């Protein structure tokens, strides 16, 4: 069983390292669907009755689009690989901490809380429950009458 699990993990790991990168659909899970879709029309708009010269409007559109494209390309060329390295290290550290610290700590807390829960239940059923049941029986005959004084 252990050998089969190990070979399955090895296959999954090998697959994730050797699979082809999709150069067409670079956001298959659409994690940036709403966040960074910013076009000229999303940022600059002229209301009816206040329009600039058509040539200025077209040049502004082209300038915005080209500068955004070129700036993004330059930033990714300069910072893409270093930031990928940093994010890879960060997520490796997070995975390590989650696997080797968080999950064992949570499991330990669950085990301890089950033990404390049993002790708490024992105390409640042995001492507190009978105490309040006795008080309830003692005062079950008490009747309270409310009168309104005028």
UniProtKB/TrEMBL annotation:
<comment type="function">
    <text>May act as a scaffolding protein within caveolar membranes. Interacts directly with G-protein alpha subunits and can functionally regulate their activity. May also regulate voltage-gated potassium channels. Plays a role in the sarcolemma repair mechanism of both skeletal muscle and cardiomyocytes that permits rapid resealing of membranes disrupted by mechanical stress. Mediates the recruitment of CAVIN2 and CAVIN3 proteins to the caveolae.</text>
</comment>
<keyword id="KW-0832">Ubl conjugation</keyword>
<dbReference type="GO" id="GO:0060090">
    <property type="term" value="F:molecular adaptor activity"/>
</dbReference>
<comment type="similarity">
    <text>Belongs to the caveolin family.</text>
</comment>
<keyword id="KW-1003">Cell membrane</keyword>
<dbReference type="InterPro" id="IPR001612">
    <property type="entry name" value="Caveolin"/>
</dbReference>
<protein>
    <recommendedName>
        <fullName>Caveolin</fullName>
    </recommendedName>
</protein>
<dbReference type="GO" id="GO:0030154">
    <property type="term" value="P:cell differentiation"/>
</dbReference>
<dbReference type="GO" id="GO:0005901">
    <property type="term" value="C:caveola"/>
</dbReference>
<dbReference type="GO" id="GO:0044325">
    <property type="term" value="F:transmembrane transporter binding"/>
</dbReference>
<keyword id="KW-1017">Isopeptide bond</keyword>
<dbReference type="GO" id="GO:0051480">
    <property type="term" value="P:regulation of cytosolic calcium ion concentration"/>
</dbReference>
<dbReference type="GO" id="GO:0070836">
    <property type="term" value="P:caveola assembly"/>
</dbReference>
<dbReference type="GO" id="GO:0000139">
    <property type="term" value="C:Golgi membrane"/>
</dbReference>
<keyword id="KW-0472">Membrane</keyword>
<dbReference type="Pfam" id="PF01146">
    <property type="entry name" value="Caveolin"/>
</dbReference>
<dbReference type="GO" id="GO:0042391">
    <property type="term" value="P:regulation of membrane potential"/>
</dbReference>
<keyword id="KW-1133">Transmembrane helix</keyword>
<keyword id="KW-0333">Golgi apparatus</keyword>
<dbReference type="GO" id="GO:0005925">
    <property type="term" value="C:focal adhesion"/>
</dbReference>
<feature type="transmembrane region" description="Helical">
    <location>
        <begin position="77"/>
        <end position="103"/>
    </location>
</feature>
<dbReference type="GO" id="GO:0042383">
    <property type="term" value="C:sarcolemma"/>
</dbReference>
<dbReference type="InterPro" id="IPR018361">
    <property type="entry name" value="Caveolin_CS"/>
</dbReference>
<keyword id="KW-0812">Transmembrane</keyword>
């Amino acid at each position: 069983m252990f050998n089969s699990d190990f070979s399955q993990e090895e296959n999954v790991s090998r697959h994730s390292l050797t699979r082809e990168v999709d150069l067409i659909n670079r956001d298959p899970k659409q994690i940036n669907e709403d966040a960074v879709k910013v076009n000229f029309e999303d940022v600059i708009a002229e209301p009816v009755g206040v329009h600039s010269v058509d040539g200025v409007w077209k040049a502004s559109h082209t300038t915005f689009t080209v500068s955004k494209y070129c700036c993004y390309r330059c930033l990714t060329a300069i910072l893409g690989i270093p930031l990928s390295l940093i994010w890879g290290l960060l997520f490796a550290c997070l995975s390590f901490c989650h696997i080797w610290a968080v999950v064992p700590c949570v499991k330990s807390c669950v085990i301890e809380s089950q033990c404390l829960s049993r002790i708490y239940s024992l105390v409640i059923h042995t001492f507190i429950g009978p105490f309040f049941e006795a008080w309830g029986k003692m005062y079950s005959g008490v009747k309270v009458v409310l009168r309104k004084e005028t």
